[in-house]
Design goal:
It is a single chain. The protein has helices at about 45-50, 75-85, 100-105, 110, 120-130, 145-155, 175-190; strands spanning about 5-15, 20-30, 35-40, 60-65, 85-90, 160-165, 195-200, 210-215, 215-225, 230. By secondary structure, the protein is α/β, with parallel strands linked by helices. The chain has a single domain (about 5-230), classed as Rossmann fold, CATH 3.40.50.300. The strands form 2 sheets. It has a 7-stranded mixed β-sheet. The protein has a 3-stranded antiparallel β-sheet with strand order 2-1-4. α6 packs parallel to α7. The longest helix has 16 residues, at about 175-190.
Length: about 230
């Protein structure tokens, strides 16, 4: 199993009481899985994703990525582990504004201390995602769709087994949203694992499984390969 969340819980201190952002949530994502974690704003989706990505320690429960608990590592070890193992895609792109498309895609090599043919892989991803004519452009010169495809290429540069995406289509029109979701599905079907959190219904047709959260808890789960609801 690439990603396992087992009975994870996260609580925040509110103004007058505790806020249970995530309560006893268990999710598994393996090779070939494209799982969409769906629900309204404030239901705990992003908190669950941050815990899955080694960015937010749960109060209780287990997080396992490629059979390793990232929270058992030191902060520096965990950062290096994330760089090698997890690709992240966010709604706001988080591209470096003064770097070209190529250099933004190559950025993960620094964190992961990669010494192999990263430039060749970067060129291949840029070509695959329709960005070859934008290779030397800065993020400010790109459309929203081009920025998100650049962010996706960056996330996949180090060949991570796991891709985590937080509202990746939130700023995209229909055509660009479908293009990004299609690339993510291709990644999963080539052996990767994808966990995408969103309230965007456009992601559902691309998913192999849909898990719905409400008030920090799983309300239902649908396996789209069989059409059943668990």
């Amino acid at each position: 199993m690439i990603l396992r969340l087992e009975h994870v819980t996260k609580t925040y201190a509110g103004k007058s009481s505790l806020v249970h952002a995530v309560r006893d949530v268990s999710i598994g994502v393996d090779h070939g899985d494209f799982v969409v974690l769906q629900g309204p704003s404030g239901c705990g989706k992003t908190t669950a994703l941050l815990m899955a990505g080694g960015l937010l320690s749960p109060d209780s429960g287990l997080v396992s990525v490629t059979e390793q608990n990232p929270y058992a590592l030191t902060a520096n070890e965990r950062a290096a582990f994330r760089a090698r193992t997890i690709g992240f895609v966010f709604q706001q792109f988080h591209l470096v504004p003064y770097l070209s498309v190529l250099d933004n895609v190559l950025a993960p090599c620094i964190a992961a201390d990669v010494q192999d043919d990263s430039c060749g892989r970067a060129d291949s991803l840029i070509e695959r995602f329709g960005l070859a004519h934008r290779k030397s452009h800065l993020p400010g010169e790109l459309s929203s769709g081009e920025r998100q495809r650049t962010a996706l290429a960056r996330a996949l540069l180090n060949k991570p087994p796991l891709l985590l995406a937080d509202e990746p289509t939130g700023n995209l029109d229909q055509e660009n949203a479908e293009a990004v979701l299609g690339h993510m599905k291709e990644f999963a079907e080539s052996g990767g694992a994808v966990l995408l959190v969103t309230h965007d219904e456009r992601a559902i047709p691309f998913a192999h499984r849909v898990v719905r959260l409400r008030d920090g808890q799983i309300s239902d789960e649908m396996d789209r390969s069989s059409g059943g609801v668990n």
